[in-house]
Amino acid sequence: MTSTEIAPRLSPAYWRLWTASTISNLGDGVFLVALPLLASRLTRSEVAISFIGVAAALPWLVLSLPIGAVVDRIDHRLLMVRADTFRAAIVGTLAIAVAADSAHMWMLWVAAACLGVAEVFFDNASQAMVPSIVPTEVLEKANGRRFASEIADKLYQLAHTNRLGRLVIVAPPKILGTLRQSLHKEVLDHIEAEVPKELASMPVSAIQQQIATW
Predict the structure, then answer these.
(1) Which of 13, 29, 51, 137 is a good FRET partner for 130, with 20 to 30 A between their CA atoms?
(2) Residue 193 forms beta bridges with which residues?
């Protein structure tokens, strides 16, 4: 690149998408943290409360591939709007049930599962949309920022529910720097070390040797 050339930048359309994804994922995280707290007022059963987390995670395990195929056939923007509208309807319905003092555990399980399904739709659609709104030269950077934001939100959920212990973050240097900027204070307090390394392409034996030295 010569001194007169300007490196491509992430477009305003990408930053709008990034902001929407971050707010959406953070909202899901806050709500999924609140659900177990609400469940603890309805039951003393730890198993029943743990089913909330299972219901929220199950769509990712069962529906990721089918939903990915659906996402490829539908307008991504429209799908994201519909997913967030569905989430708002679920949260609003549950809020009305709580306000009317008629909430039950099964409602929390259904709400968690529905939010999980909507999250799979939204995240797949937003990821599929990235290549169409950023230049190829900065696609890796764009995906890195999205990945860092998603990881930061997941870690925040764990930290906020006291399920996060000592944390060692291993990531390529560029991703590590972006991730550090995205982490919440509750997560930063758990970090024991940061390792700026790319391990994805290394054989398992080499990764095990690296881990043993930390």
Answers:
(1) 29
(2) 168
